[in-house]
Design a protein that fits this description.
Blueprint: H1 4-7, E1 12-13, E2 16-17, H2 22-32, H3 39-51, H4 59-70, H5 99-114, H6 125-133, H7 139-148, H8 156-169, H9 177-190
Length: 192
């Protein structure tokens, strides 16, 4: 693993220039989770975002670089399978974080905690992830905690309260354009 304090933030992967702004990482995450894109389209969109026009010709190298980038430079064995930064283990339960849904909370937390205006600042993806992981005591971390709470480990009264909070703050599932069209047709048929 690279020591960012001593070595600085990387601008390339295995000799290939990468686009390092945190907005690129967010766009890649959104592309990888886009229900309107087929799996090959998700990957190609993510690779184009990361490498620009200089995508490595070796698919394994290109994908390894994508996993490395999205994980903030973690060694390959530590990469999260879908390349999406998450809080907690993404293999269990519902997701606890979503860049699209939580963008205002992220903005507010960075502004309050670090004095950084994410609309105006340029920030390396790795720095952004390090800071994102260090957020605590804010609405974003509170909501992530609510989403990740295991209701089975709570008493009846707390379980009821947390179930309501989880329903309120849950990550809303993405609906594809095709499904939206079918829903609209169905609603038209039933008159509502």
């Amino acid at each position: 693993m690279q020591n960012i304090i001593l070595d600085g933030f990387p601008e390339e992967y295995e000799g290939y220039l990468i686009r390092t702004d945190f907005r690129i990482g967010m766009q890649i995450s959104e592309a990888l989770n886009d229900v309107d894109l087929a799996e090959p389209e998700k990957l190609m969109t993510a690779l184009r975002l990361l490498y620009g026009n200089g995508i490595p010709s070796d698919p394994e190298l290109a994908e390894s670089g994508l996993r490395w980038f999205m994980s903030g430079g973690a060694p390959d064995e530590e990469h999260i399978s879908d390349g999406t930064p998450t809080f907690g283990d993404p293999t269990f339960g519902e997701p606890t974080f979503d860049f699209e849904q939580d963008n205002r909370l992220v903005y507010s937390a960075f502004r309050a905690r670090f004095g950084i205006d994410l609309v105006r600042e340029r920030l390396h993806w790795f720095a952004f992830l390090a800071m994102l992981g260090d957020l605590g005591g804010c609405s974003l971390s509170d909501i992530i905690g609510i989403r990740g709470t295991d209701l089975s480990k709570l008493g009846d009264e707390q379980r009821s309260e947390y179930a309501k909070l989880q329903a309120r703050y849950r990550i809303k599932p993405q609906i594809s354009e095709a499904d939206r069209a079918r829903i609209a047709e169905f609603e038209e048929l039933i008159g509502g």
